[in-house]
Each structure stands twice: as C-alpha cells, then as structure tokens.
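Morning, I've got a small favour to ask if you have a moment. I've dropped the whole record in just underneath, so have a look.
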Amino acid sequence: MYKNHSHTASQHTALLLTGGGARAAYQVGVLKAIASTLPRNSPSPFKIINGTSAGAINATALSCYASCFHLGVKKLEWVWRNFSTNQVYRTDFITVFGHIIGNMLSSFQSDYINHPPASLFDNEPLRGLLKHVLDLQRIDRNISLGHLKALSITASSYSSGDSVAFFQANNILPWQRAKRRGENTTINIEHLMASSAIPMVFPSIKIRKGYFGDGSIHQHAPLSPPIHLGANKIFIIGVDQPSDTKYFGFQPQYPGISTIAGHLLDTIFSDTLRADIERLERVNRTVSLLPSREKHQELKRVETYVINPSENFNAIANQHYQDLPIAIKTLLRMIGVKKHSESSLVSYLLFEKAYTRHLIEIGYKDGLAKQDEIKHFLSLP
C-alpha cells in the first residue's frame, strides 16, 4: 500500500536545493527530518531532484541513493557532520598566499596566454572529495529502475551569460528560453564543480568549449528546471535566513569590501528565488481564473512549499569563527572580515564540523516543527 501511494504521489514532486556554500548543511537537517517520517527502506519521495551550487552536490548525493532515501540522507549527513575546510579548499599558508600571488602575476602576462582561472581560493580538494564519496553510475541505474525521474544541476555560463540546467533523464527534451536552457547530459564531477564555483571565491570550470561558474549567478528563474522536467509540486529548501535588524537604518561609516561581498552573495543565493515564487503565484492565479477549455497546455498550476532557516547564520558563524584555519582567518582579515564584522562571507566559507553540525541541528528542528505541513504537501502517509 505504501509503495503504490508513494509512487503515484511523487512522480511529479520535485526537490529544489538552493546554493549557499557551507550554509547547505542546513538542507541536510531538513532532509533528515523528512526521512524520520518514512519507513527505513522507502525510496525517495522526490522523483525530480534539482540543485544549484552546494545544493547541487546534496542533490546529486540524494540521486545516487534514490532507491533508499534513509541511506542517502545518512551518507550525506556523515559527510557534513565530519567536514573540515581543507576538504573543500586549500588552507595552508604557502598554498593560500601562493595562489593569490600567482593570480596577481598572471595579470601581467600577455592576453594571448591561457591564464589559470582567477579565484580567492584553490578548491581542488573538493574535486577529490566528490570523487571519493559519490558513485555517479548509480544515478542512471536509479532512473532506469524508476526510483528517479530526473536530476538537474544548474550552472552559469560565463561564455554566453545563460543559466544552464544540465539534466540527466530519459525521454525529456532539452529546452531553450531567454537566457536559460536545459541540456540533456550525463552528470559528472565537472558539472558539480562548475555549479558550486562561487564567483571570485572559487575558479571557473571548463565544460566542453565554455566556462561555467556558480549556478546562482545567472539563475533568474530557479523554478524553471523542475517545471520543465515535469514537476507540479516543488519542495524548496532554501538558506534565506531571517533578517538581522541591527544592521538596518543609520550606519556610522561606509560599508567595507567584506560587507559588500556578503551582500552580493546574499543577493545571488536568495533574491531570485523569492521573485520567481512571486511570478509563479501570479501564474497560478491566472490559471485558476481561466475556463478549463481555454487553458493552454503550457500553463499549469504548480504548488510550492518553502522552508528556510529559523535562525541567523551570520550570528552562528561568528560563534564558530575561531574554528577557521589560521591562514584563512589571516586572509579574510586583510579584506576586513573579523569575528564580529557585519559581513555574511564567513557563513558561506566556514566548512568546519562544529558549524555544519550546528546548522544540521537547526534544519532538523525546523523540519520537525513543520512535519505535519510537509507530510501533507508531499502526500506522505
């Protein structure tokens, strides 16, 4: 009885995991809360899984274990609960400052020389971690067995300025819209590296003949990929934290580079999603007003459910600031990021287990608090 219900209810139910660097640990807590409501051997309640930036990595991990949702969440939690920053980017003094000096020297070279990608940090360790923990061949197997309908990973093209949803699925055609498109492909590590390449922080990634960066940069319509892949319900786990009112109003001095950088990241990772949900709600209202005979086949009602953190990640990151490697704290201090600075930059870069475990617990608490609403939305028994 359960399997038939789950299969019917989830065929067009999508999961959307947004970006946010280390903040994506929060998503794991919410997923853990959902898993706690399901039988231990149940498949994923989401047949369409979509991710951007760090959310793309979480989405891919879940897709690898779509046949057993509990196991996928458990493995994902193990990685996030035991994180250290040097698993994501290099943190020793020689490499950190050698990397920056190398970027500076390359700027003096001739334009025709193929320069290495410029970035604040070298995230080559992340590639090694992904290769170690992800068995990407399982994705195709889960699609063939019906445990998964589609996986999409969004990246931003620096060559064309398009938002590109790389998706792996059977019998779904690519799409093309203004400044966004979907490409059917086999998801690999390079797609994940590109989607999670936070601008200026991590280097861009070459895929075929183009260069790509964080999927949130050009993602003006975050809901587009799951809708194109057939979703009529989208469950969204965001990282849009509650506002901290102490920074509103009068400021005695100009905002520094670090503060502005933090605001830019907040805008990239949060604002477009809110705007797209508002557009979808207007479309839903329009569809509801049309007589059934006049409804166009491209117009359909799509329900969304959004869960965001109940606590401020900037304040939590400040509590764990001392856990950052010394070289990283030194570098951040050079651009004005200190323990109690207003910048949200640390909350994105702090891949230390004390911080990620804290975020997982918040996600788990938030998920349990809204357990009844979530079960109703996902049509879980």
Q: What stands out?
A: Residues 257-289 form the longest helix (33 residues). The beta strands are 13-17, 48-52, 150-157, 163-169, 175-177, 180-184, 205-207, 210-213, 233-237, 303-307. The chain has a mean pLDDT of 86. DSSP finds 15 helices and ten strands in the chain.
